[in-house]
Amino acid sequence: MSMPSTFDGDDETQHWPAAGKRSIREVDFFSSERRGWPEDSASAPPKEIPAHEDHKLALLSVGPCEEGDKTIQPSDLHLSNTTMMNWSLKIKLDKLKDENRKLRIMLDWANQSYGALQTQLALLKQEEVLKLENTASSIDDDPRKSLIAHSCKNIRPASLSDPETDRDSIPIDKHEVSVRRPRVSIRARTDAPMISDGCQWRKYGQKLAKGNPCPRAYYRCTMRAGCSVRKQVQRCPRDEAVLVTTYEGSHNHPLPAAAAALATTTSAAAAMLVSSSTTNPSSNLPPPLFTDHQQLGTSILASYSYSSACPTVTLDLSRFPSWNPPNTNCYSMMLPPPPVFNSSSISHDLHDGQFPGHSPSTSSMTEAVKAAIDTDPSLTSAALAMTISSVLKANPSA
DNA sequence: CGCGTTTGACCCGCGC
DNA sequence: GCGCGGGTCAAACGCG
What we know:
The chain is built from 11 helices and 9 strands. α3 packs across α8, α8 runs antiparallel to α10 and α8 packs across α11. The strands form 2 sheets. A 7-stranded mixed sheet has the order 4-5-6-7-3-9-8. It is of the alpha+beta class.
C-alpha cells in the first residue's frame, strides 16, 4: 500500500498527527495549528491571505472588515472597491473550497486505508485461527503433544480439568491453573430450550443459580471422547425470553461440516470486535459497546466482560427481529437491547485493571478479548458459526 | 439393554 | 476457619 506522495517523508509526520488525534485534526479545520503547511503543498493556504484572516469568513457581515493592518470603513468603499472585494473574497472562498475538497479526499483516502487495514487484520486473524485448528487436529492423537499444546494454547481452569488426561499429566506451571479460560457467550431470543449449534451435547448437571429463578443446565460435548468443551444454558433472569449460552473449552475433533464452513464468518465477527477495541489505544474507556459489522451484512452487539477471573466475549443476537433459524428451534425476537456490559464487573474490574497476568493497563482488556478468541479458535468457530449463520441467513438485510 | 436425563451429594474456590 | 455458591459427579430413573 503506497501513500500519496504528499505525505511522504517528514511531511507525513508533520501533518498527520498521531492516529488518535486525526479526528481532531479533521474537525479543527480552521485551527491556528494549520500554520505548518508545506511550502510546496498544493493544498497550502494561499500566501496572499493573511494567516489570521482565513478563518474569518464573515461574508455576510455588514460591519467593518479588516484587511491587514488597515481598517476599512464602509464609507471608504466605492462600488469598484466593493466589486473588487467581492471578487477577492470569492477567490478566497473558492480556494478554501478547493482546500476543503482536497482535505476530504485525504480523509476519504485515510478512511479507506483504515478500512483496508481492518479487513487485513480480520483476514490475518482468520488465517491464524485456521492454522491453530489444523495444528490442534494434527496432534490430537498424541495425548502428550496434546497436553503440551494445551499448555501453550489454553489456560485451563482447575475446575474444568479433564480427569481422563490430568491423571497422567505432567505438572504444568501452577500459574496456569489459577487463571480461567476465556468464554464465549451468546444471547439469543428463543423459546427453545437450547440453540442448535451443530455439535452434540450431553447434559450432566443442572443447578439453580442464586438470583435467577431459572435453572442453569450444564452440557458436555459428546462428539468425541475427551472433548473438553462444555456449555452452560440459562435463561436471562431479567428477560426469560432470552437464552444465554456460554461456551468454554476447545474441541479436540473436527467441527461439523456446516459449522466449519461458517467458521470464517464467526472468526471475522470476532476479529472485528478485536479490531474495534484496538482503534483507540490511548483511551481508558472500554471498547465500543456496539460493533456494527457491516462487512457481515449485519449488526452484532459484541462485547467483552470480565467477571470472576474469567474473560468473556459476548455476542448479543437478541437484537435481531424475527429470527427463525432453519432447524428445530423457533426464535422470535425483539426487545430493547439489553445492556452489554451488564454487570458491575465490567466497570469495576476493567477500570481497576485487574486482569491476571497483566499489569493494570488499558491494553489488558484488548489483550483479554484477543486471548478469548486466539486461545480458542475452535470454540468460536464451532459454537458461534451456526448461530450467527442462522441469523445472517434469516436476516440478510439485518 | 443402552443411552440420556434428573437430582441430590460432593468438591473446591472465594470472600468474610 | 467457616459458610456460600458454582461446578461436577454418579446413582437412580425414564424412554425407545
